Amino acid sequence: MKGFRFLTITLVALLALLLVSCNAPADTAETDATVAGLEAQIADLQSQLADTSDNEAMAGLEAQVADLQSQLANAADDSEAMAALEDQISTLQEQLDAAEAAPEEPMVVVERFDGLPPYTGEPVELRMGWWGNDDRAARTLQVINLFEAAYPEITIIGEPNGGAGDHFQILDTQLAANNAPDIIQFGGNWPDYEQYLEPINDYLGQQLMINTSETFDQSALIPATAANGNIYAVSLGTNTLVLAYNKTMIEAAGVDLPADNMTWDELIDYGRTLAAALPDGVAPFVDNSMNQANYLSYFYRQQGTPLWTSDDGGKSYATVDSARAWLQMW
Fold first, then answer.
1. Are 327 and 282 in contact (CB under 8 A)?
2. Which of 63, 182, 206, 303 lies at a 20 to 30 A Cα distance from 245?
3. Collapsing DSSP states into helix, strand and coil, what is residue 239?
């Protein structure tokens, strides 16, 4: 009996071992398949999130999906944990589908009654740099205050930089440090900074209301701030040459006041008449071109010989004849 009992126990043990050895590969394969399936579902969630437009609902789901991979690694040997993880993935998938299907909230555009275009962006702070004396700084800051009152979502930080020389020295330093203002005053030297400037073509007639009959027609000024098919700035205005004269002195000499729109030849003839009528030692004209090369450059261009050009490394096309014609006038 003892031998029979031992044989029975041995057979039962062998049968149990056989069953375990037969079932183990199947259980492992099933676990591996489950893990692979969950990994695929997590990858699908991540891909779906990447292709979905960003909003608050998606931002909350991203953090949960990112944590699924680590949970899966810890749950690989725990069937209950894997089942719970599968339920969690299913729930997240439902939430993601719902968030993706939800319509985006429409942009609210507040109607304005002052004729100004509405601002539809987020609150923003911008810096603005310019040059000029204290009076210009005060007036510019007043304009900034008016703008901020009309657009409270936009804050403008004014940065007056003193004279033009100081302004551009400061600007060059700021550009080198990638810390330049968002809005910058330029003069005729703006093409030197074109590489740093953002074209404003896309804003014309929309947020930037210029060159329209309803606001300010800048069609005559736009060429001064345009290059290569792009517009880079809004002109604050333009300068022109004027002839300032001493009205009292001319009237005392008995000569008519100069007429408008005189040609250079007419101006020369007028100067001769005035010189003959003035007292000895009183010059009819004063030439300021030695201090302001702009005056000389305008005359040169009228003669078809620009004082300088951006081509050929800034070569000057002025001629001796042009210089002689200018100097002989005085």
1. no
2. 303
3. coil
Is residue 329 pLDDT above 90, yes or no? no
Give yes or no: residues 89 and 153 share one domain. Answer: no
Angstrom distances, CA of residue 292 to CA of 184, 264, 289, 318: 24, 18, 5, 16
Cα distance between residue 268 and residue 329, in whole Å: 7
- pTM score, whole prediction: 0.50
Report the C-alpha gap between 238 and 189 in whole angstroms: 14
CB 190, CB 233: distance < 8 Å: yes
Judge whether 12 lies within some domain: no
Q: How large is the average pLDDT for residues 7-20?
A: 34
Q: Which of 17-21, 189-193, 200-204, 243-247 shows the lowest per-residue confidence on average (mean pLDDT)?
A: 17-21
Q: What is the pLDDT of residues 50-105, one digit of tens each?
A: 666 555 555 556 666 666 666 666 766 667 777 777 777 777 677 667 766 655 55
- Is residue 152 domain-resident? yes
Q: In a 3-state reduction of DSSP, which class is residue 183?
A: strand
User: Beta partners for 126?
Assistant: 156
222 pLDDT tier (thresholds 50, 70, 90): confident
Contacts 24+ apart (CB under 8 A), 174-177: 174/129
Q: Which domain holds residue 287?
A: 247-328
Identify the helix (H) or strand (E) that includes residue 231: strand 230-231
Rounded mean pLDDT of the chain? 74
* DSSP states along 112-160: PSSSPPP--S--EEEEEEE---HHHHHHHHHHHHHHHHH-TTEEEEEEE
Nearest-angstrom CA–CA distance, 233 and 212: 16
